Amino acid sequence: MTETPSPTAAPGAAPDQPLDVVVPSGDDPADLTHRLDLLVAQTHPSWRAVVVADPHPGETLATAGAFAERDARITVLDIDSGSHGETLDAGAAAGSAALVAFLPVGTRWAPPHLRLMATALGAAPGSLAVSRSTNTISGPGVDRSAGASVESSLVLGDVVPLGALLIPRTTLGSIGPVDTTLGGGHAFDLVLRLLAAAPVVPVAGSQVRHRAPARPGLPTTPDDPRVWDKHVIERRLVDWPAQRAALGDRVADRLSVCMPTYEDWSMTIRAVDAVLATAGRRDVEVVVVDNGSRRSVSTILTSRYVDDDRVVVIRAPQNLNFALGSNLAFARSTGADVLFLNNDTVVQPEALDRLVARLRSDPTTVAVQPLLLYPDGTVQTAGTFFGGDRILPWHLLAGHPREDALRGGVTRFSAVTAAAMLLRASDVVELEGFDTRFTNGLEDVDLCLRAGALRPGAHHEVELAAVVEHHESKSTGRKVTNTVNRALFDERWQGAYPDSDLHRYAAYGFAAPHLESTPPAEHRQLRRAYPIVVRPRRLVATGPDTGAPCLRWAIKTHAPTTAADPGRDALVTRLVAALERRGQEVVVDGRGDHYRPSGHLDDVTLTIEGDVVVSPQPGALAILWRSRSTPLDAIVTRINHIVVPVTAGADVETETDRLVELALDRARKDAL
């Protein structure tokens, strides 16, 4: 708050102790009328109030003027404030009483409120009076006053409203002005600083009720105070200047893995154990931040690694979400290289070494991501692509077979995913980590774009030889990002989005001529868009079949494919080699991904007979390669264009050549 001349300390119990009340105008005349009516009804007579114009006050100043004409204790301060924080500062500076109260928008005081609060401070000069408070107009109050402290606020969040405090002016002046850089979090920050600056006197006999302005259950705009609470909490948990000063103390060859988790121990243990098992002789530490889970979760994680000094488990005061949980883990880490890693991942052998080698190979590389695969071996993301200005990015090749990612060989991107993201600790500090206003979405893309200003040529890469299995919910890519994340991202990057990556699909043999979009949901400013990926007709470029159609063959096996095992037995290996010798493009689908979302790109499906019938891809030439001598069901015979007898296994190459000729002949005659 603005410094004022130091007044006389609050005297002993004096029911008529003078005090100042700061009343932000808000923009709702009805709400201001209600607040001022309750203020005039206070049984404590010795108060003076200043109604201060908020940004965009509307008709509220006229309402305040009418009250001021009837009651000389009320004055109106019409200022051109740029923020709600400036309004609070100006209102406090306009008074001189030894005690100060705030009556924010939506706050409701019972008639004895100020008398009870002033009496409490009269008996405890220099303390901070905290009233019982609730965030609804009706119903019982939730008593936060007895345990009000910085620590409890970090656990419970923004639960002690500014309107529930009576503050000595000396305390208010000692903590400095309202931090106007915190947007909607300025009041929460002010309360935390006040709680840290003075002892608390709970006033259980008084109750403040607060009715928040009408708003949806989840934040929808960047100004919503709920968007800023983690940002305010971060200032108490992560000291970025101290992190910068301590960079020289980090261990040069140590890899720190930062892993937030919430209400889970089984996946987290699997993820941590995979890191330790694949680290080999590398100096590695894992910092797990338990985001305020049940005590049993923290107990299990802590006891699991109590004898392993490579693992540190930190219990956060509440669910800090991914961004702040990751930043807190980083602040407790000690390595020069840092891998942010989701707790639903399984690092595959040699992945850590390959990621570190790629990062260290080029000083302009800021972040490196592995190839992330679903448990069935299909791609979760091979990078992040953009569609142009104001088009939100998407995961590259989601739902494709891994062969597509390896065949394309694209490794340089404007952004990568923090599901598994390796950076230098010095770059994390320079960026001050993830922006904690994002809630589990787009914070990684935002960090990558901010990193573009770190140094000339700054960019991000995907190391395709490093594989991490990711157990993210498998879908077609239409998972809706939280509304406010979109608004925050667009507010920051509008006009500065990376150029469209659609033309880069050509490296994979595809084209993306159009975007499809999802319907707009309530309050969402931006619609999600996704590329419509097609495979243009092309010809074999080299070899004996030069000039012939190059078709895409999907071999369907009944062996399970995983991130660790592509599921290629001897027969499949021979089929792949024979088809590629003829200039054909081949992918292999295991039992779990026979019906992957990218199946529309396939020209031919070649199914190895197994214990489950595979329905062919519509529009593709369907071939069944028999592996059993038992009679074939009539329906199975009917749904396949070609049935290869069991005896073909004696000469796979010759039979494959025959199938290629049949497929090429069909391709020349018909549009598949």
Beta-strand percent range: 15-25%
Remind me, CATH topology of the largest domain? Spore Coat Polysaccharide Biosynthesis Protein SpsA, Chain A
How many separate domains make up the residues?
3
The number of helical runs is: 20
| Arithmetic mean of pLDDT | 88
DSSP summary, beta strand count: 27
Which architecture of the largest domain per CATH? Alpha-Beta Complex
List the helices and strands and how they pair.
Elements: E1 19-24, H1 29-40, E2 47-52, H2 60-70, E3 74-77, H3 84-93, E4 99-102, E5 107-109, H4 113-123, E6 128-134, H5 150-156, E7 165-168, H6 169-174, H7 186-197, E8 200-210, H8 225-237, H9 240-245, E9 251-261, H10 266-278, E10 284-290, H11 295-304, E11 311-315, H12 321-332, E12 335-341, E13 345-347, H13 351-360, E14 365-373, E15 379-381, E16 384-385, E17 394-395, H14 402-408, E18 412-413, E19 420-424, H15 425-431, H16 443-451, E20 459-470, H17 483-493, E21 511-517, E22 529-534, E23 552-556, H18 570-581, E24 585-589, E25 604-608, E26 621-625, H19 634-639, E27 642-644, H20 652-669
Helix pairs in contact: 1-2, 8-12, 18-20
Can you walk me through this structure?
With 672 residues, the protein is of the alpha/beta class. The chain has 3 domains: 19-214, Alpha-Beta Complex (Spore Coat Polysaccharide Biosynthesis Protein SpsA, Chain A), CATH 3.90.550.10; 239-498, Spore Coat Polysaccharide Biosynthesis Protein SpsA, Chain A; 552-669, Response regulator (Rossmann fold), CATH 3.40.50.2300. The chain has 20 helices and 27 strands. Strands 9, 10, 11, 12, 13, 14, 15, 18, 19 and 20 form a 10-stranded mixed β-sheet that branches. An 8-stranded mixed β-sheet has the order 3-2-1-4-7-6-8-5, with helices on both faces. A 5-stranded parallel β-sheet has the order 24-23-25-26-27. Helix 1 (29-40) packs parallel to helix 2 (60-70), helix 8 packs parallel to helix 12 (321-332) and helix 18 (570-581) crosses helix 20. The radius of gyration is 32 Å and the shape is elongated.
